[in-house]
């Protein structure tokens, strides 16, 4: 599927608003999205809808009028992050050195996920039916797969790397807790560097146990 | 601190029971511990005390009579895992090849944590004041530090490894989710092999970003 078309379709579905939406309704919508982003980023996707309504200072009825399901709310809240994720893999693909591009993707995606735990959870298919998250995720994964093929062919990526290893690393990256967001990002940075080391082709590398399909 | 003495002291504190504890009280105690182990292993340490009482089929008053705090309950529930963890690091230390011993510790501790998520959370100092968990944890960390020193001296462990990298890997390992416990263990096994690769000294290894103290 063409990812740009997929994202455009999704935006058309989720961003469509009645033409006469009044400005206080727009304010409410933005307040809800801000509260949702902050809540999902700090606590993941398990924050209840009523709690998001409370933090946004709107009633539950207002919340559900704008976003009938948590999936729709998360989808809209994560649009920016999806775009950021897409920009990262595009930057990686455009790199003339595929191994350098591959490393860049790992570093930047780990950091993006470390900064926003809700997005990491969404990306890891917590909402398998969230169309645009799925489309964005498939685009990212397909792009990284292409990058991995090139880096492997160039002899820099270990030949037994599979795409699920990237998912494994992103899940693991999401397990990193710290006393502050800044510390989490710094810890994630060191983790990404170690992950790159693990993925680098090396004559001394031992065979890996079988890959596990967690997707 | 001598770890054996620390653990003995802890057991003396937490395992001490009135001499005349009646057998039905002992049954309740075991039922509570079984329920707590299962709940903590599957869902981590956030399971409420009243839910553990419910699953054990006892009243909250009975639960609190046996274990006045969740810390005391977790401490007692994790005694076996602490012993297993200690046995693993002792086995690693006894290995004549320190790098082999170091790898063995990573593999086995990752698997132990993957099998028991509650223990992983406790080990990662979720209860900083739980004396025996702290004592067992310090013993394990000190032993691994000694093993790491030897493996580094032998030229197999990268010279910029710090003990916090092990904590980082254990946190990351705990982030691995899967549809079944068996899949989680298999995924964790592949993750441990990649972590070992990341820690192995290599002329091609790039410098790492600064270590982060998450403890």
Give a description of the structure.
Chain A is an all-alpha fold and 215 residues long. The first copy, chain A, contains eleven helices and no strands. Chain A has two domains: 18-70, Orthogonal Bundle (Arc Repressor Mutant, subunit A), CATH 1.10.10.60; 79-199, Tetracycline Repressor, domain 2, CATH 1.10.357. The first copy, chain A, has helices at 3-15, 23-43, 49-56, 60-66, 70-77, 79-94, 98-115, 117-126, 131-153, 163-174, 181-199. The interface between A and B is large, with 37 and 37 residues.
Kindly list the characteristics that best describe this protein:
mainly alpha, 2 domains, 11 helices, 72% helix, Arc Repressor Mutant, subunit A, homodimer, elongated, 215 residues, Tetracycline Repressor, domain 2
Quaternary status of these chains? Answer: homodimer
> What is the correct CATH architecture of the largest domain in chain A?
Orthogonal Bundle
In angstroms, what separates the terminal alpha carbons of chain A?
A: 19 Å
Order of helices and strands of chain A: HHHHHHHHHHH
Helix vs. strand class of chain A: mainly alpha
Q: What's the number of domains of chain A? A: 2
How many separate helices of chain A? 11
Give a quick account of the main beta sheet of chain A: strands, pairing sense, barrel closure.
none
CATH class of the largest domain in chain A: Mainly Alpha
């Amino acid at each position: 599927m063409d990812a740009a078309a997929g994202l455009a379709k999704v935006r058309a579905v989720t961003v469509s608003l009645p033409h006469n939406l009044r400005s206080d309704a727009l304010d409410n919508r933005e307040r809800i999205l801000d509260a949702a982003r902050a809540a999902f980023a700090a606590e993941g996707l398990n924050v209840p809808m009523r709690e998001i309504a409370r933090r946004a200072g709107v009633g539950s009825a207002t919340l559900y009028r704008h976003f009938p399901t948590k999936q729709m709310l998360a989808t809209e809240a994560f649009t920016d992050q999806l775009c950021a994720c897409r920009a990262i893999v595009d930057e990686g693909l455009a790199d003339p050195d595929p191994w350098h591009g591959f490393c860049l993707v790992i570093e930047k995606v780990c950091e993006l996920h470390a900064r926003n735990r809700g997005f990491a959870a969404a990306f890891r298919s917590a909402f398998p039916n969230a169309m645009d998250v799925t489309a964005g995720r498939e685009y990212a994964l397909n792009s990284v797969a292409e990058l991995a093929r090139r880096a492997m062919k160039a002899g820099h990526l270990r030949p037994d790397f599979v795409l699920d290893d990237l998912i494994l690393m992103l899940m693991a990256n999401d397990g990193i807790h710290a006393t502050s967001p800044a510390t989490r990002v710094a810890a994630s940075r060191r983790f990404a560097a170690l992950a790159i080391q693990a993925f680098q082709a090396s004559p001394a590398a031992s065979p890996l146990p079988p890959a596990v399909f967690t997707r």
